[in-house]
Amino acid sequence: MSSRIRSIRLDNSSINPKVLHAQYAVRGEIPVKADKYGQQIRDGHGDELPFNAILPCNIGNPQQQGLNQKPLTFWRQVAALTECPELINNAQLFPKDARDRASQLLHEIGSVGAYSHSKGVPFIRKQVADFLESRDGYSADPENIFLTAGASGGVNLLFHLLLCGEPDGVMIPIPQYPLYSASLALAGSRTVQYHLDENKGWELNIDLLEKSLSDAKSNGTETKALVIINPGNPTGAILSEENIIEIAKFAHKHELVLIADEVYQSNIYDESKPFISFKKVARDLKLDTLQLASFHSVSKGFSGECGKRGGFVEFVNFSEDLLSQATKLASISLCPPLQGQVAVDLLIRPPKEGDESYDQFSKEKDEILTNYASRSKIMADRFNKMDGVTCNNAEGAMYAFPQIRLPQKAQDAAKKEGKSPDAFYCMELLNNTGICVVPGGGFGQSPGTLHFRTTCLVPGTEDYINTIEKFHQEFMDRYRD
Amino acid sequence: MSSRIRSIRLDNSSINPKVLHAQYAVRGEIPVKADKYGQQIRDGHGDELPFNAILPCNIGNPQQQGLNQKPLTFWRQVAALTECPELINNAQLFPKDARDRASQLLHEIGSVGAYSHSKGVPFIRKQVADFLESRDGYSADPENIFLTAGASGGVNLLFHLLLCGEPDGVMIPIPQYPLYSASLALAGSRTVQYHLDENKGWELNIDLLEKSLSDAKSNGTETKALVIINPGNPTGAILSEENIIEIAKFAHKHELVLIADEVYQSNIYDESKPFISFKKVARDLKLDTLQLASFHSVSKGFSGECGKRGGFVEFVNFSEDLLSQATKLASISLCPPLQGQVAVDLLIRPPKEGDESYDQFSKEKDEILTNYASRSKIMADRFNKMDGVTCNNAEGAMYAFPQIRLPQKAQDAAKKEGKSPDAFYCMELLNNTGICVVPGGGFGQSPGTLHFRTTCLVPGTEDYINTIEKFHQEFMDRYRD
Question: What sequence ranges are listed for the domain Aminotransferase class I/classII large (chains A, B) (predicted)?
């Protein structure tokens, strides 16, 4: 045997550089540190810390330990019955509508332990089509619908089809949900940024879209698609119908695939701003060549069933040939998880008035949505009262994205630690309070501005905000210029 | 508005060409046709067909409709209890060990509706480490273990880390499971084929590995990894310990990442050939720089819970920095489905002697494995009696991969239809009998040979083989030279 020292084939010097470049702050440095604190507490060494528990506000994960949003009873009953079909006749434990739903789904699926069609169970796709038809007033074809592992699975599918590396690009909002920038980095393609106007409630200005696209063109970027997140993440802003019309026309004019991230369509707190889908507007406008991919998920809304990994995408104006390629691509990972697919069915077919579960379901749903709305309002009000902090009211979604103005001394201290000022602030917040939020840099922010994103998922929001306020005041006092 | 005709941005002329190149025959043309027949039968137009039902033998999907392998009772009870924790105290319906397991898992997980850590629930990873330690007699670190959405999810993760497009390559067996060739096509990297010796029971010849690697080198290929499937898919062959030692040394010598697809480790029919893991051999040989990634899945074995999308990978001899990158990459799709993770726990911690569920679990397990073994034997025996067909005995996994020698006239007829002869044969089989199998070309086969893959999952294997035999005889008579 040779005596030379063998080298390691795969390490960070030989890794696919696209992976190195991808960033995903929602689960980045600060959440990783929070995990370590959490482990320290579980291991019984929490005494050394200035807090008793980690409060995970870095991600929209309502059922997480520490937040503990109760799952919807009807959803879980149907899920349990699909796991144990022998309980379907047990009328003592399960309401009739849950038993009927489980029977119906199992009749179509067979077993939740079987691979389904790679696009998802045909029956559930048909239900999704009916849901879209009744939502938008326009027909939907089940063959254009793919069930996916969360919305992320759908975005991953579309990006694989769409992007060929350099010099392809996709327009994304700033701030954005970092799935998009990370997926673009993995594809070796470019982000084409357009900025939302914080001073006008995170409004989307169509002139800025035009400018961003033409700048990209002069940089040699082949811009292929436009991502719109409505309701906005992290902004919480809801687009007006007028704005949606402009955007659809813009995408149509420039032959961009319109990627409509509509996963927060059930999270609307401002009754004067109903959710309007891009599908409806595109059909209203008869934009027959506008290619639209609209995403939805069981992880958000009021269900918050993130762990199920369920979602769907509707492809509008894509050819049959293209969808065959999409099906082939989906088939390589076989199929989305079956309980995720069952959850999609539950998402789009809630109990109806008169059904045995209707009252309980409605009560659970209303309680969750009322909580989200009131917490969002409390957060914005309280943030706006803090020294150097401003925060737009969230009209929807499940986040607040306050802007923080930090003293020069704090910025210098951050620099000394090799951190951006927002990351420094958020790390200090974690170290002092156990509260885990994400620095604005993880979503993108206009130059010279600093933010963080938190969620409206914390029960006892007053206490939570009191803790942040106390930290913030101490932080500002410590670093005051 | 301009009057020029707008074009469609994304169609098969502008699609990512890597997607066009990827092939996945397990769900390819023939299964798609079978789906259409299935729909025709469900729609009440089956009378026009020469069969009553589709028999899906294209994929290892035991619980599929038409095969209907019953799920393991203990697994489903625990799954249902994690969905509906309020049933955990119901001693009338659920055995104590199932209730205890669900309690323990929920204590660790919180809710199956929450995102977990992107690598999977830490507690379950710890259990996997204990399982590996007891299987191999060597320690395993939970930090090296990633829970994944089936083994496919793990392979996808590793290929993303490892491959940088051209001129990277990975050695794969011929025949292989097409996940590997498809994933390489998507990465824009090369397949480096090595042929298994059908005449010696699909033996892996180390000289052919050496030759294949050196040929690749002279083609300018940067070969980074070696895929071994043991027990083999589609071959059903089990590697001897001697062979495993040679392979490990080969990978070590050439600094290749060893990708050990060991998802059929519980599917062993030949008692003289126990499963030996690459991890054990690598540790026995003290190959401290050999990088090994070993995959396992809940979809195979005797559980067959494909729809759960559960699995895991153990990374051996990868740096902490590299694993951090892997974690970041996993985090972009958030986490594997929670019921898949629960299933992994059940896979590696079956009921123990003395537990309330032990007897029933053992009975169910034994029945499934005995069926697989006896059906595999029946299939090989009967295939070997057919005109022009030879078939190695499957020692493990869940497939038969018979070689078929077709008359020239059949090959000419295939050519006329623009099909390869094996695809032509399999399509005729489907059209005439409703039996759906996969042509050997989907897995790769030595030049001049033709095969198909079927599964050992059909109840009533005698009837099944009788149908194939009748078809085969008629086919051979029709095309006899």
Answer: 94-456
